[in-house]
Amino acid sequence: MFNVLIVDDEAIIRKGLRNIVDWESLQCIVCDEACDGVEGMEKIKKLKPDIVIVDIKMPGLNGLEMIVNTKEIIPHSKIIILTGYRDFEYLKKAIQCGAFDYILKPSKVDDINSIVRRAVSELEKEEETVEQMQSLKRNIETTIPLLKQKMLYDLLFNVSAKNEKQLKDTKLYDLQIDEFYILVIRIENSDNHDNMSMYHYGIINSLVDIYSDLFIVDHISINEETIVFVIQPVPDIRDDEEIEGVIKNKLRTLKKLIKEYYSFETVAALSGKGSGREELHRKMKEAIAALDEKLLNFTIDNKNIDIDKMRSIDYRDCEYRKDEGSSEKRSTSLIIRNAVEYISDNYTNPISLNDVAEHTYVSSYYLSRMFTKELGKNFVDYLNEVRIEKAKEYLKEDYHKTYEVADMVGIKDPHYFSKLFKKYTGLTPSEFKDKAD
Fold first, then answer.
1. DSSP 367
2. Residue 415 pLDDT > 50, yes or no?
3. Is 4 helix (H, G, I), strand (E, B) or coil?
């Protein structure tokens, strides 16, 4: 409901307007009345009405002065002038001062309703515009940090080409990279904890809180266990040894806090000093290589870390690579490896690109790009191929019906499964079974 204030020095006019108009049907409520301009301004300051109906000539403070003063206090208000004569020059001045429209004394109820209805319509449009702007602002405030993280991810993994647009983007997202250090933290013995994403979030916030007095901190998450921090010292400390000493002291505090509150062990490695965004990729590899060395000898609760697995990580390009003796030489990024493993474990369920992106801690857009770049196919094609290959195995067993196989590989519609199977194999499931026999 919109608030209406009636200002007129004639009581009969005020009462008449209050009573002859069905304000509720116009989505309005008369919040008060005033008998002159001075009282009217006091109530405008107090009540902030949406619509003010004001006599153009009153003792003390006339309508024109009220329009100017009201617009200063409530710019969005709709001011409707009451006048007993057609002094168009005077009305023109009122419109120029910000009046919405005028009502002649006397006027028909329909005419008054029409003017108020238009004022309400304008107010609704303005409210909608304000809400849209606020929604846009909220979206930008939400999106900018995500875009900033994506930009940092691209810089650290050397994904995007170094160009003028990238430089503009770093400024747009407030990602200025001057002198920095890369700190990589890996959480160990996390298998014993549920809801790791919550702990992950808490650890990031704890580090930012501990470092924020002397450092600017940005971060990305490689997976649930590994977080990369870009730490930039503020100008107050310039000596490199002093900076590294402060970083390491704060790191000891952080590790103690994590162990005490989260019961996690952590392994961390710090790069040497870097300068400028061009060095981010090289310094991250340096920190991860140092982390690798620590992880090779790290033991928790008498359970050794999988050394062979750690040695299969080639940090020259931050990618996972199979042993050199393997017939398959192609390497895939750690993110894609995690995505592929997730699909392998969950293809029997309905899964989407968003599900996999959430699991790998990257945006769905970025993961889609990574699938095309690393595997030469999009996410949907890869998921379908996994399901079809598994379906072939079940069909060869000869005792599964087609609809059963469809359900076993995560496709609930048997007809769609048959179409998909023929698309990828050139045969219907029945033809494939016959040929296999």
1. H
2. yes
3. strand
What is the identity of the amino acid at 268? A
Question: Residue 93 class from Cβ within 10 Å (0-12 exposed, 13-18 middle, 19+ buried)?
Answer: middle
Taking the CA atoms of 371, 374, 377 and 381 in sequence, report the sign of the dihedral they define.
Answer: negative
Number of H helices, E strands in the chain: 17, 15
Give 310-325 pLDDT, tens digit per residue: 334 333 333 333 333 3
pLDDT bracket for residue 169 (50, 70, 90): low
Give the predicted TM-score (pTM) of the model: 0.45
pLDDT of residue 139: 74
The pLDDT-based confidence of 74 (bands split at 50, 70, 90) is very high
DSSP state of 99: -
34 beta partners: 7
Q: How many CB atoms lie within 10 A of CB 300?
A: 12
* Contact of 31 with 5, CB cutoff 8 Å: yes
The CA distance from 101 to 80, in Å, is: 5
Let me know how long the chain is. Answer: 437
pLDDT at residue 372 tops 50: yes
Please, what is the end-to-end C-alpha distance for the chain in angstroms? 75
Domains of the chain: 2-128 (3.40.50.2300), 176-311 (3.30.70.270), 332-436 (1.10.10.60)
Pair type for strands 2-7 and 51-55: parallel
Is 67's pLDDT higher than 50? Answer: yes
C-alpha dihedral, 6 to 12 to 18 to 22, nearest 10°: -130
Residue 338 · residue 359 · CB < 8 Å: yes
